[in-house]
């Protein structure tokens, strides 16, 4: 009887610390959202800022081990739910109306970039999970792709943060470069939008870079970029299959990991494409998706210290940088070849 009574306070304490862990990631994600509205920080975006805030908090105050289960819940369970809801940002009808050229330029870029960045990272002796996440993040949709791929290959939290931060920094750098180069590229607004949307890392990067080209450039950038986001589904399925086969070679098992949350992403995209949900509701769902994913990013940041990032971030950054340069060159070429320019 006494042991049963004494276990009640322990369970209550665990519940409180669990909620505190989730609450901390929520506060950091909302703070990141507010900071992302500032002009000089908007280019970084809410997700990147959430990672940085998590790392700064850990370095400044430390993170009690008692709240880590709640933090882990945010960066694993809530992450998957956020990715599912993010599907509401994608309208498959818009992609279909854009024509096969948009799908072609997106597919070529993703395929080439994954192989190049992964190959370069492995040449630099970067571990496979970190190399693959950096490649997928560079090729598809930045940090969101990194955290979608991470559970499929059983990546460590430290590796996930390094990869997400690397891709985010590269995307911000190339966004600034594109804006500076725009007057000298000689592209039409539509061509410049296709160039930005097919080569930059995050949706926010593509929109920010396309802004000098006006509304036509921005619209094309979003369509091309979201086409790349849509291809996260087949890429995730391929990665899940590859990971299962690789592990099967060691364990003599051949179970295929199916990323159900990515299929949920596709289902939500299909629902959004039916145009049966009011735009105001859709916008709020997308906002919730970003808050949940930002909570996951904050949780990842709370797991990593700056010393680890300094030790392990240089080689992935070098591979991503070289891959991004190649991606930009190929993108500029395809824009002309496919008649976007």
From TrEMBL:
Transmembrane annotation, as ranges: 15-32, 102-121, 130-153, 165-185, 223-244, 256-277, 283-304, 316-338
What family is this protein classified in? Belongs to the UPF0324 family.
Q: What is its main location?
A: membrane
Protein's organism: Paenibacillus azoreducens
Supply the source organism's classification. Bacteria, Bacillati, Bacillota, Bacilli, Bacillales
Stored Pfam families: Cons_hypoth698
Q: Where in the cell is it found?
A: Cell membrane
Keywords for the protein's UniProt record, in alphabetical order: Cell membrane, Membrane, Transmembrane, Transmembrane helix
The protein, known as: UPF0324 membrane protein
> How is this protein situated with respect to the membrane?
Multi-pass membrane protein
One cellular component term (GO) for this entry is: plasma membrane
Q: Please give the superkingdom of this protein's source.
A: Bacteria
Classification via InterPro entries: UPF0324_pro (IPR018383)
Q: Reply yes or no: does the keyword Membrane apply.
A: yes
């Amino acid at each position: 009887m006494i042991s049963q009574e004494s276990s009640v306070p322990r369970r209550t304490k665990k519940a409180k610390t669990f909620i505190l862990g989730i609450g901390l990631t929520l506060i950091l994600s909302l703070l990141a959202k507010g900071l992302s509205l500032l002009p000089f920080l908007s280019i970084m975006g809410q997700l990147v800022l959430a990672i940085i805030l998590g790392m700064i908090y850990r370095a400044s105050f430390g993170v009690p081990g008692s709240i880590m289960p709640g933090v882990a819940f945010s960066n694993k369970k809530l992450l998957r739910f956020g990715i599912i809801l993010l599907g509401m940002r994608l309208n498959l009808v818009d992609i279909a109306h854009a024509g096969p050229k948009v799908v072609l330029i997106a597919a070529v870029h993703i395929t080439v970039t994954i192989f190049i960045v992964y190959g370069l990272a492995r040449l630099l002796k970067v571990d496979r999970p970190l190399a693959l996440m950096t490649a997928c993040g560079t090729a598809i949709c930045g940090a969101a792709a990194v955290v979608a791929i991470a559970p499929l290959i059983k990546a460590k939290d430290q590796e996930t943060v390094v990869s997400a931060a690397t891709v985010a920094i590269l995307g911000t750098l190339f966004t600034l470069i594109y804006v500076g180069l725009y007057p000298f590229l000689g592209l039409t607004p539509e061509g410049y939008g296709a160039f930005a949307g097919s080569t930059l890392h995050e949706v926010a990067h593509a929109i920010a870079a396309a802004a000098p080209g006006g509304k036509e450039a921005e619209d094309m950038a979003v369509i091309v970029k979201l086409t790349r986001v849509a291809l996260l589904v087949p890429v995730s399925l391929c990665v899940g299959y590859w990971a299962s086969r690789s592990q099967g070679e060691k364990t003599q098992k051949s179970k295929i990991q199916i990323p159900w949350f990515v299929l949920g992403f596709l289902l939500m995209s299909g629902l959004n494409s039916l145009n049966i949900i009011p735009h105001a509701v859709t916008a709020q769902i997308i906002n919730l998706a970003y808050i949940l994913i930002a909570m996951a990013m904050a949780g990842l940041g709370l797991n990593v210290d700056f010393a680890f990032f300094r030790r392990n971030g240089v080689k992935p950054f070098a591979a991503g940088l070289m891959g991004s340069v190649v991606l930009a060159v190929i993108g500029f070429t395809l824009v002309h070849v496919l008649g976007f320019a």
